[in-house]
Design a protein that fits this description.
With 430 residues, the protein is α+β, with helices and mostly antiparallel strands. The chain has eleven helices and 18 strands. The strands form five sheets. Strands 3-2-1-6-11 form a five-stranded mixed beta sheet, with helices on both faces. Strands 14-13-12-17-18 form a five-stranded mixed beta sheet, with helices on both faces. A four-stranded antiparallel beta sheet has the order 7-10-8-9.
């Protein structure tokens, strides 16, 4: 009998090992966006995957460009969405995992060297090098939200994922940091505290969207996720299995709707309806002949103008072109265009516009596919669309997916990270 024959036989259906940082018991995630607020309550089952227990969503209120502009309105939307999910799941939430889209989040990569001195690398070394990265990347008035090593170099050996236990003289690390405005974070904390909710974790919105829509091979070979939301368009770049860049552009579906309302002199609600039902970025031969009714602002209900669909397309296309041009510029400015590979995944509600995929491929000169969120047990079919990619990505994060070996609040001696302390500071003052 050889050594292999003595190994235990795998048991089909056996519980899968829990991922790093996976939640236990029921937990809540909250996606606060410009056009909608979504709350999901779920638990992680034996196979390591989440099951949704409660679902609630409300039309977005009090938000603009991803940031809170009206505390009372935002509170009303959050309370309503959370209340729906709590009632469905028969669960009372005390805290939630929240998406980060406020505070003009910025991303940067740092290269660091740390002396080890011909001994084994320890957890303490990783915490020290991460703390040094945060110190070097600190800017007044901003707070680090994500901070994690992308890869390590052990002396002359690059591409090490986990150096712990390896002996070396010098440990090199490539650190990815995401920070945001402290003032915006305080407003977010104030709003959630008024809803009797703690912020358990903050997760970058495009990062969450990527967790929900990317497949593992795309993360490895390089891919860019473009999350086209209502108030912003967010970018997440993956390479070699790691998040290496995020960015946010203050253009979203709301700007498209506003363009239609302004040019056509039609109410906002009807402009949104025109965009949803007839909007797109591609023209067809019938567009000039297809006439659409357009009520005019301030006119009687029976005073209806008619415009060709081609006019709708000609209003929408320049705004989408501008958006993708900004994406291209951000990738080039960040120096990650090459690492991002040749793959782009479009998600978010704005990606549903007809022709958005084709236009993105032309402007970005990359392969583009539509990013539908992965299927989640217990999630209504109506929520399995790109507009809910961030919410389902927060569930993936709660299940332990995408978590680095060490992050901004690591280790038993530091149970409270700076983000948690910031929100506790807010709670003490309201």
């Amino acid at each position: 009998m050889n050594a292999l024959s003595r190994l235990p036989v795998p048991v089909e259906g056996a519980p899968q090992p829990r991922r790093r940082g996976a939640r236990s018991g029921a937990f809540g995630v909250l996606d606060i966006g410009t056009t909608k607020t979504v709350c999901l309550i779920a638990r992680i089952e034996g196979d390591g995957l989440p099951r949704v227990l409660g679902f609630g969503w409300q039309r977005g209120r009090g938000m603009k460009g991803g940031s809170i502009i009206d505390l009372e309105e935002a509170e009303r939307a959050i309370r309503a969405a959370v209340g729906q999910a709590e009632e469905m799941s028969d669960t009372k939430l005390s805290g939630v995992i929240v998406n980060l889209s406020c505070g003009q989040p910025e991303s940067r990569l740092l290269q660091l060297q740390w002396p080890i001195g011909d001994r084994a690398v320890t957890d303490a070394d990783l915490r020290a090098i991460l703390a040094e990265g945060r110190r070097r990347g600190h800017e007044d008035g901003r707070e680090t939200v994500h901070g994690a090593p992308v890869s390590f170099t052990v002396d002359a050996t690059p591409g090490v994922e986990d150096p712990r236990g390896m002996i070396c003289e010098t440990l090199g690390a490539r650190i990815h940091l995401v920070d945001a405005s402290q003032a915006a974070l305080r407003n977010l904390g104030t709003c959630l505290a008024r809803c009797d909710l703690d912020v358990e974790e903050l997760v970058s919105a495009p990062f969450a969207a990527a967790l929900s829509t990317l497949v593992e091979d795309e993360k490895r070979i390089g891919a860019t996720v473009i999350d086209m939301g209502g108030g912003t368009t967010s970018i997440a770049v993956f390479a070699e299995g790691q998040l290496i860049h995020t960015s946010q552009i203050p253009i979203g579906g709301w700007q498209v709707t506003n363009d239609l309302a302004r040019v056509l002199s039609t109410p906002i609600n009807h402009a949104e309806r025109l965009k949803t039902l007839h909007g797109g970025a591609l023209s067809s031969a019938d567009d000039e002949r297809e006439m659409l009714p357009v009520p005019l602002v301030g006119e009687d209900e029976d005073h209806i103008a008619r415009v060709p669909r081609a006019m709708i397309v000609n209003i929408i296309r320049p705004r989408l072109e501008e958006t993708f041009e900004f994406v291209r510029e951000r990738l080039e400015q960040a120096g990650v265009a090459q690492e991002a590979g040749n793959r782009v995944v479009l998600t978010g509600g704005g990606s549903l516009l007809i022709g958005a995929r084709e236009l993105a491929a032309r402007v970005l000169d990359r392969q583009v596919r539509s990013g539908k969120p992965r299927s989640i047990r217990g999630l209504p079919e109506t929520a399995g669309v790109p507009a809910f990619a961030v919410a389902t990505g927060l569930l993936a994060w709660a299940a332990g997916e995408g978590r680095p070996i060490i992050d901004v609040a690591p280790g038993p001696e530091r149970p409270r990270g700076s983000i948690r302390r910031l929100f506790e500071w807010v709670r003490e003052r309201i």
